[in-house]
Amino acid sequence: MTRFAPSPNVAELRESATIAVSTRARQLRAAGHAVIDLGAGEPDFPTPAFVIDAAHRALDAGATRYTEVAGIAALREVIAARASAVHGRTVGAEQVVVSSGTKQALFNACFALFSTGDEVLVPTPAWTSYYEMIALARATPVVVRGARERQLKVTADDLRRAATARTRGVMLNSPCNPTGAVYSAGELEAIVALAAERDWWVVSDEIYRAISYDGEAPSLLSVAPDLERLVVVDGVAKSLAMPGWRIGWSVATPALSRTMTALQSHTTSNSATLSQHAVLAALSDTGAVEAATRAMVNEYRCRRDAALALLRDARMDVLDPHGAFYLFVRIGESTRDDPEPGTTFARRLLDDASVAVVPGAAFHAPEWIRIAYANRMEQVLEGVRRIIAARIS
Ligand code: PLP
Description:
By secondary structure, the protein is of the alpha/beta class. It folds into 2 domains: 17-46 and 289-392, Aspartate Aminotransferase, domain 1 (Alpha-Beta Complex), CATH 3.90.1150; 65-285, Type I PLP-dependent aspartate aminotransferase-like (Major domain) (Aspartate Aminotransferase, domain 2), CATH 3.40.640. It has 13 helices and 13 strands. It has a 7-stranded mixed β-sheet, with helices on both faces. A 4-stranded antiparallel β-sheet has the order 9-10-13-12. The model has no long low-confidence stretch (mean pLDDT 95).
């Protein structure tokens, strides 16, 4: 039998560490262990009933055929109208590409914009897939660390210091997975100004924007004066509890959108027709969407506050999250003997205390772990109690 040798395209690729944890937790559960899953970055709420009803109706009406690659016109128009409202200027439907999840929208952007020899700044810690997507485009992800006293957020100055003549872009994510940090409009403005001065692309992943605890998290659409060098991606996985429907989208210039559509036409074509109709129904009913999201955010807030109180009482080093549904906790210092204390801890926690969390190494922060509180309150609290006990023991 010939041995499989991966092509250089994927030779360096690592499995998504966040998915690896949920897979392991699922395996343990299947083997009869009562695992508390604080690993998965997936809402525990069901998709709102009015969206499911709309999907049933769409299926009955025969929504089973291919659509335009970039998505059905009505859906792109609704997304464009929402983007226009945030931007304060008209965004056309031709600037919207609907994809199979925000993940694909991000991949389209990275692949269309970056290439061999390019460097892309990644404010770190950051979602695990940015580094891999940039590398898949054969560019180099450059880790830029934010200071602890700023909730690990980076400043324009941090980015300036990390930049070289090869820098082509920067990936932003606010509210941030894994830290829960939210960038203020002022912080974003400074970064956008630097990017404009240096002619960088800004890719802004705003998938958690609706899950924000202190007023609305600013969008790059409202901060940036134009879309010339900007790609804003968003989706419904988190805000509408629709992760399995696989719908996300990008908003960019018409030219870049055409290129991303061409790329998508050769990979997956349109995202699932039924899902597009469900999301169209969801986004068309602003009142229902806002009510559904508000109810979820209120519940997340209660869990965040209760879990934070426990962690702080136990004097654990935890960031102060203002958005998303994660708590980022520092476990200890990297040493030569244990370069990834977060990973060591997460492994022990799963094996000895049946609690799944994601090691910070997945986000290039090996001293930390990420706790997702997208789980029922009693599970979150029991999980956090076990984390505290495991930390002390
Ligand atoms: N971006 C961030 C920051 C995420 O945390 C996730 C999912 O965990 C995604 C994108 C992927 O979203 P989707 O399920 O829409 O592909």
